[in-house]
Amino acid sequence: MNKSAMIVKEFIGLALIAMFFYLFLFVDFQGFSFEMPKRFLNVNTIFLSIVLEAIPFILLGVFVSALIQTFVSEELVKRFLPKNAIIALLPAALLGAIFPICECAIVPVVRRLIKKGMPLHVGVVLLVGAPILNPVVFASTYYAFQSTTEIVYARMGLAFVISIVMGLIMYLLFKNRNQLKWSKDELIGRMKAEEALKDVGKIKSTLFHASDEFFEMGKYLIIGALIASLFQTFLDRSILMELGSNETTSPAIMMAFGFILSLCSEADAFVAASFGGTFSAGSLIAFLVYGPMIDLKNTFMLFAFFKAKFVVTFVIVVTIVVYVSVLVYQQILL
Q1: How far is it, in rounded angstroms, from Cα 229 to Cα 225?
Q2: Which pLDDT does position 151 carry in this prediction?
Q3: What does DSSP assign to residue 31?
Q4: Is pTM, for the whole model, over 0.85?
Q5: Residue 58 φ then ψ, to 5°
Q6: Which domain of life does the protein's organism represent (predicted)?
Q7: Gap between the Cα atoms of 294 and 287, Å rounded
């Protein structure tokens, strides 16, 4: 794309943003006689709530990603990881416990770490474990389930074990072969961008990387949030509620809820608590564990930046592992 075309594209984008803010702040639509169907208003409300809930964490993720790009070298990543692929799984799971990052933000962070030399299976451990194991999620879950703290500890314990199991399975399947998606245009564009940033200070470089990453991730967040809001509005939940009384099917139903609702892991515990009178403890745990590991919006992000075969395999494996883990937990401890 030549320079004049890029300027026109940026101008159109800025004009659309300016028009949106003008309409939002200064135009009163109450005088219009057109009435939008309530269901579509509901789609709009849910869509905005998902996007507004996710954007702060996306910003956190892209800034962490940009800091890693600017200040963390490939040698530093390799130095702090154990050489043995299996032994590296445990410290990766422990690292996930101190990352204050939800599933909205973990994708750009893991992608950047893999680019910096982190093995794929270690990245998978972070991708699966960090959105649940971090202290913010523990605190929100504990607050939501103060009367049933076993759900809190079950969520954390299962997430820790599953993250290690996922890392091991993905290592056996892919042997750390490169699974990042790179197009020819992207490679050429990034090489030019890196050249342009060589003479720029580290702070400016961090801001440039963060802005590029934010707009790159943002479009997939919007697509995922729109589809999630459509599902939430038009899906007949009464059928799912009827299936929720069965011990075998209810965890699967709540996993489907977790995938479709696409809630942020810092807030999903309060939604899960509202289902307490309808679903079993095991199914609530399935909801709390599966949703942050894979949902609609981060599935779009994964497809955008990882190879399709890897993403499909990841989704299938994490679904099977979580479902089987919850069934085993129900049989042994509930």
Answers
A1: 6
A2: 93
A3: G
A4: no
A5: -60, -45
A6: Bacteria
A7: 11
- Are the beta carbons of 325 and 158 closer than 8 angstroms? yes
SS3 of residue 306 by DSSP: strand
Q: Which long-range contacts (CB under 8 A, 24 or more apart) does 169-175 make?
A: 169/317, 169/321, 170/120, 170/121, 170/124, 170/313, 170/314, 170/317, 171/85, 171/86, 171/119, 171/120, 171/121, 173/313, 173/317, 174/120, 174/121, 174/310, 174/313
At residue 243, the pLDDT reads: 63
Among residues 244, 103, 120, the alpha carbon closest in space to that of 175 is found at: 120
* Cα–Cα distance, 5 to 28 (Å, whole number): 35
DSSP letter for each residue of 214-269 = HHHHHHHHHHHHHHHHHHHHHS-HHHHHHHTTSTTHHHHHHHHHHHHH---TTTHH
Top-confidence residue, 132 or 38: 132
Residue from 311, 295, 319 nearest 120 by CA: 311
| 266, 137 contact by CB (below 8 A) | yes
State the average pLDDT over residues 273-283: 79
Residue 30 per-residue DSSP state: G
Measure the CA–CA gap between 205 and 217, rounded to whole angstroms. Answer: 18
Give the pLDDT of residue 309. 94
Instruction: Indicate the residue type of 149.
Output: T
Q: Which helix (H) or strand (E) holds 155?
A: helix 149-174
Domain layout of the chain by residue ranges:
39-333
